[in-house]
Specification:
With 645 residues, the protein is of the alpha/beta class. Among the domains are: 269-415, Aconitase, domain 3 (2-Layer Sandwich); 467-641, Aconitase, domain 4 (Alpha-Beta Barrel), CATH 3.20.19.10. The chain has 22 helices and 27 strands. It has a 7-stranded mixed beta barrel with strand order 21-22-23-24-27-26-25. Strands 7-6-3-4-5-20 form a 6-stranded mixed β-sheet. Strands 17-16-15-18-19 form a 5-stranded parallel β-sheet, with helices on one face. β1 and β2 (24-27) form a beta hairpin. α2 crosses α5, α6 packs parallel to α7 (204-213) and α10 packs across α12. The structure holds alpha-methylisocitric acid (MIC) and iron/sulfur cluster. Iron/sulfur cluster is lined by residues 65, 99, 119, 121, 296-297, 357, 360-361, 377-378.
């Protein structure tokens, strides 16, 4: 029986477990990446593990998220990460060099290799045939220390692409169509593998847009084959030697199949407030808009910028619209300057931002009250833009650019004829903003630079014998990590200070939650399905840990967040009968008797007694050998200290 590409790469990296769907496996990790919003914590964790030098083939620390330095905190974090990188064998991509996923694809990614990153959009690397997975910071720290990364051996979904995109219909529309069909929960436990004749019509940046936003499906990752097009891209980056062909066997067997005829697609938009709330542009109509933002790790490649410049040429941004453009990397920005694209954009009235995440993570450019903003980004969760009642639509760069000119949502096919946009044969390569680490001999002399905002990892304790605690919060379905631990210019600088950032935990849903949870000392959160979707931020587990959350009981979890809860030593519980969700109210006191003994004995079916109502609620606590030991130890940090010597 033939193998899928995903299986081939996973099997070649298997270090623990059996390649059986649904079972936990450990894989060897070749490369890691971190960004600064999750990186400071990941490196504090790495330091706490006491491993002197990374054991991966390549680890890169990027500064791209917290680049608004409206106080000392972010700059201190940058300095800290730079010094840790230098000491421990990690390459340091300085602020200004670009968004981690864009730069990694351009400069470091290698087909057939494994990559984990402390950022949920790490699957961007799947655009060149890597198994690239988003993970919590602690998992990345462990991988840097040479430890395996654990995932559930996934189901593989085959997305067969046929045909060719029509003019002005783009890769963004492909992934929006996949989201429309599968939803934000549709990819949980699965890898999305793209195959078929249509693949050959897509360039690497287009493939990367699709794998990047595959994160919004909840998928473990997404992957394209590595073929001649990949080879050309890597050669143009001066890295042709790292290319290898990567593809599925012809008789590979998949678990599910989705067929997409590229020729039949039309321009789409994800409407507020979910990336799967997808409609055709025709269905939405000529919506008047206030703002347009072009950029983010989904759509900030040179190819995207070439299209945008073509559309803006000789035009002026509509008087009622603010247009912001953030090119994805220094390379992109520099080539835009050389090719004259930048001057076209400036002429049209675009506000050029630095090569960083910027508005995507609420770092500036929040829209006006109730403002309608078209963004080429990947997430439009409530409040993420920094404006609580902002209405964010996710669209392609083509659609964004023409709409910025017209002042209303516009079908890009109205532009008329589309020229052939071809990528240059050689990109402008200059890695001077990537600082290599110190040699092993010099490393001992490198001083770690810590600022006053950098506080250590919260206290942990081994799992208690029994847990009796009140429900401090009850929330509904599809809670994102942006609800649990919001980001934005005010809160992001506190990413290395868990006591301070915890004061914002869940404030999007309930402003009084942090104070209440802290006062209770210990408590439990109850939630609906797909709890913890979105970002990989482990702060969405560390803040609850700091606030005394002992267990989270929900209908279902998103993958990365569930892993982060376990890593933080918080019990992840799911209802056996979803209807029991209705029987619990905020304030009820729940009891898990002898929970430590039961988990230690490998029991997965537990009973929660609602001592307020007397009702017994069957719950599942699905822990395997390793995750069981992590929970018993009080989290992955304690477990690793014991095991990774
Ligand atoms: C995001 O897009 O939400 C982020 C910011 O990149 C996060 C990471 C973070 O919260 O630091 C992600 O996607 O993992
Ligand atoms: Fe940065 Fe936005 Fe991409 Fe997250 S999704 S890595 S915030 S550009």
């Amino acid at each position: 029986m033939g193998l899928t590409l995903t299986e081939k790469i996973l099997r070649a990296h298997l270090v623990d477990g059996e390649p059986v769907k649904g079972q936990e496996i450990g894989i060897r990790i070749d490369q890691t990446l971190t960004q600064d919003a999750t990186g400071t914590m990941a490196y504090l964790e790495f330091e706490a593990m006491g491993v002197p030098r990374v054991r991966t083939e390549r680890s890169v620390a990027y500064i791209d998220h917290n680049t608004l330095q409206n106080g000392f905190e972010n700059a201190d974090d940058h300095r800290f990460i730079g010094s840790v990188a230098k000491k421990h064998g990690i390459y340091f991509s300085r602020p200004g060099n670009g968004i981690c996923h864009q730069v990694h694809l351009e400069r470091f990614g290698i087909p057939g290799k494994t990559l984990i990153g402390s950022d949920s959009h790490t699957p961007t690397g799947g655009g060149i045939g890597m198994i690239a997975i988003g993970a919590g910071g602690l998992d990345v720290a462990v991988a840097m220390g040479g430890g395996a990364y654990y995932i559930t051996y996934p189901k593989i979904v085959k997305v067969e692409l046929t045909g060719k995109l029509s003019p002005w219909v783009s890769a963004k529309d492909v992934i929006l169509e996949v989201l429309r069909r599968l939803s934000v929960k549709g990819g949980v436990g699965k890898v999305i593998e793209y195959v078929g004749e249509g693949v050959k019509t897509l360039s690497v940046p287009e493939r990367a847009t699709i794998t990047n936003m595959g994160a919004e499906l909840g998928a473990t990752t997404s992957i394209f084959p590595s073929d001649e097009i990949t080879k050309q891209f890597l050669e143009a980056q001066g890295r042709g030697e790292v290319w290898t062909e990567q593809k599925a066997d012809d008789d590979a067997v998949y678990d599910e199949e989705v067929n997409i005829d590229l020729s039949a697609l039309e321009p789409l938009a994800a409407c507020p407030h979910s990336p799967d709330n997808v409609k055709t542009v025709a269905e939405i109509g000529k919506l008047k808009i206030d703002q347009v933002c072009i950029g983010s790790c989904t759509n900030s490649s040179l190819l995207d910028m070439m299209k945008v410049a073509h559309i803006l040429k000789g035009k002026t941004v509509h008087p009622d619209v603010s247009l912001a453009i953030a090119p994805g990397s220094k390379q992109v920005l520099n080539m835009m300057a050389d090719m004259g694209l930048l001057s076209i954009m400036i002429d049209a009235g675009a506000r050029i931002l630095e090569s960083a995440c910027g508005p995507c993570i609420g770092m500036g450019q929040s829209p006006n009250s109730g403002g309608i903003s078209l963004r080429t980004f990947n997430r439009n969760f409530l409040g993420r833009s920094g404006t609580k009642d902002g209405q964010i639509y996710l669209v392609s760069p083509e659609l964004a650019a023409i709409s910025a000119v017209n002042g209303c949502l516009t079908d890009p096919r109205e532009i008329g004829e589309m020229p052939a946009f071809t990528l240059p044969e050689k990109f402008k390569v200059n890695d001077n903003m990537v600082t290599p680490p110190a040699s092993e001999a010099e490393a001992a002399d490198v001083q770690i630079l810590r600022g006053p905002n950098i506080k250590s990892y919260p206290d942990t304790a081994p799992l208690e014998m029994s847990i009796t605690a009140p429900v401090s919060l009850k929330v509904g379905d599809n809670i994102t990590t942006d609800h649990i631990m919001p980001a934005g210019a005010k809160i992001l600088p506190l990413r290395s200070n868990i006591p301070a950032i915890s004061q914002y935990c869940f404030t999007v849903c309930d402003e009084s939650f942090p104070a209440r949870a802290k006062a209770l000392g210990k408590s439990i959160i109850v939630g609906g399905s797909n709890y913890g979707q979105g970002s990989s931020r482990e702060h969405a587990a560390l803040a609850p840990l700091y606030l005394g959350i002992k267990a989270v009981l929900v209908k279902s979890f998103a993958r990365i967040h569930r892993a982060n809860l376990i890593n933080a030593g918080i019990l992840p519980l799911t209802f056996v009968n979803e209807a029991d969700y209705d029987s619990i109210s905020e304030g009820d006191v729940l009891k898990l008797a002898k929970v430590r003994d039961k988990i230690a004995a490998g029991e997965q079916e537990l009973v929660v007694v609602n001592t307020t109502t007397g009702k017994e609620i069957p719950v599942l606590c699905e822990l395997t050998g390793r995750t069981k030991d992590i929970i018993l130890a009080g989290g992955l940090l304690d477990y690793t200290r014991e095991n990774l010597k």
